[in-house]
Write a structure and sequence with these properties.
- The protein contains four helices and 28 strands.
- By secondary structure, the chain is mainly beta.
- The strands form six sheets. Strands 1, 2, 3, 4, 5, 6, 23, 24, 25, 26, 27 and 28 form a twelve-stranded mixed sheet that branches. Strands 7-8-9-10 form a four-stranded antiparallel sheet. A four-stranded antiparallel sheet has the order 12-13-15-16, with no helix packed on it.
- The longest helix is centred in the first third of the chain and has 26 residues.
């Protein structure tokens, strides 16, 4: 037998065994029931999704032709819009499409990319003392327009240090990668050596799209979490010399797909099971999406958009808690102070969007 096939089979068995052990340990933990409190947002906050939540305000993504985000203030169980943020446009003080992430010293990093996801336009830093006063106009801005054309559609990134950010994306000329490091001061891009092991071995825009569409990355010190947007595939990794080192594979269900024209793809199977996620410096939380709006097993995968079990891991990949929320929802968010978990749900009777707050 080919020695490479033997080695590949051994590595697969080791990874599969590791994931099975992690899953078994999580299932052995008791479910902790949590009761939520309904948050009452005004109409301007209801249709927004928070990118991060401080004790003073929520910075939320909105879907508006004139603005990217809004700032909402939570007072008790009410959530009220304070002001708009990051107005859309291509002038000096405007943004096309933004993603945000905290820097290691807790300033706010703002990545501005073209609406067609083919070009990074700028990276800005808003000092903590400014954004905590809801002043997001003061920022140190770095142009990225000299970078090569790339594919970046996830709306997720992480700030590595005072000159580099990590994105789930890659230049079209190096599309056989899913992670890149951008030096925003030197306008330089470096891809990291990692390509998921599935049936497609060569470089493929379709494969790149599968593993970056709707994907997310999170960071704690020198460790990172990658979450695939399809099925249940997630792992903790570190960055070595120009490569990704997978340290703990928490979920190992890879999407099954085939290539389609123009870099598109077609899913061959859809289990209806996926992961919602958020993380802070201490823990990683996964919302196990596998139920319908009524908290029942769905008849069809299209109904499987909700969940109410949250699995909590530390950054070494160890299972530490299983939470059972009293409502089902489609996504979760942790507060920056690590005290609250928010569930974004839909009322099964009225079909209105709801936000539920849980004490951790």
């Amino acid at each position: 037998m080919n020695i490479k096939l033997i080695i590949r089979a051994i590595l697969f068995l080791l990874v599969f065994s590791s994931c099975s052990d992690v899953s078994k340990k999580m299932e052995e933990l008791p479910l902790e029931p949590l009761e939520g409190k309904l948050i009452m947002p005004d109409k301007d906050c209801l249709k927004s999704y928070p990118r991060f939540i401080t004790k003073n305000f929520w910075l939320s993504k909105v879907y508006n032709k004139n603005v990217n985000c809004c700032i909402c203030i939570q007072k008790g169980d009410s959530l009220l819009k304070k002001c708009d943020a990051f107005f859309k446009g291509r002038s000096r003080d405007e943004f096309d499409a933004v993603s945000v992430a905290l820097t290691p010293n807790r300033d706010l990093g703002v990545l501005n990319c073209s609406s067609n996801s083919n070009q990074l336009l700028s990276f800005s830093i808003v000092a903590k003392e400014d954004y905590m006063k809801w002043d997001l106009a003061k920022c140190n801005r770095f142009s990225l327009t000299k970078l090569a054309s790339l594919r970046y559609v996830s709306n997720s990134f992480q700030v590595l240090d005072d000159s580099n950010i990590l994105i789930p994306g890659a230049p079209y000329a190096q599309i056989g990668h899913i992670f890149s490091v951008i030096d925003y001061k030197k306008n330089a891009i470096k891809v990291l050596d990692f390509w998921p092991k599935d049936n497609f071995i060569g470089d493929s825009l379709s494969k790149h799209s599968v593993y970056t569409d709707n994907s997310m990355i999170f960071k704690s010190k020198n460790k990172f979490l990658y979450l695939c947007g399809w099925e249940r595939y997630a792992f903790i990794f570190s960055i070595g010399k120009n490569k990704v080192n997978v340290e703990s594979e928490l979920f190992s269900v890879l999407p099954k797909y085939k290539e389609a024209p123009y870099g598109n793809y077609e899913l061959l199977e859809n289990s209806g099971k996926r992961l919602g996620a958020d993380a802070n410096d201490d823990v990683i939380c996964f919302l196990m999406v596998e139920k319908n709006l009524y908290g029942k097993k769905p008849k069809h995968y299209m109904e499987s958009q909700y969940g109410n079990e949250v699995q909590v891991y530390d950054w070494n990949g160890n299972p530490i808690r299983r939470l059972l929320l009293d409502k089902v929802g489609s996504s979760i968010k942790l507060s920056v102070d690590k005290k609250k978990l928010y569930l974004f749900a839909e009322n099964p009777q009225t079909k209105n969007e709801e936000i539920w707050e849980y004490d951790l």
